[in-house]
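Bit of a strange request maybe. I'm writing a small parser for structure token strings and I need a real example to test against, not something I typed by hand. Could someone generate the tokens for this chain?
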Amino acid sequence: MRTAGALAAFLFPFFSLTHGLRAQETSAISDAKCWGALVYAHDEEPAGASVDGAVEGDAHFSGISARLSKVFSEKHFALLGQHTQDIFREYESWVVPSKELFLKVDSKGPAETGGMQLHIQLWHDKKVIVKTDAILKHDSPLFIGGPKWREGRLVFVVMLANGG
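Reply from user aminoacidic:
Good idea to test on real output. This should exercise your parser:
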């Protein structure tokens, strides 16, 4: 069984790699910026001050825990990793990637009602486990319940970032 620290340590090199690759794609025009987070949802209060491997939240994550508790039955939510990614209409984009669990986002352009139309795929290993089309708007996160992990489950949180 993996620890949260091992998973978080595994994820962060991929965050840096994809950020660097997207920064080099200067010929592509970004449709939006998408913020994604991998969250560990669980019922047991951690023995220490936090879950091993959890990272400090930022402005995007503040307030998300209260929303998560309205959707999921778990009582505690720990941010394991987060990443802001440019979304390009001509390219696939990867948010919160890891070798085992990652999110693929394809832009379908601006929505008529505001926000961005996206095609989203949640991958586990080499299999797509969730496929959906969604309209993301600022301050309106999309929650995707992931697989069971440790004594709880993993949850992806995706929303438009400021400047998108």
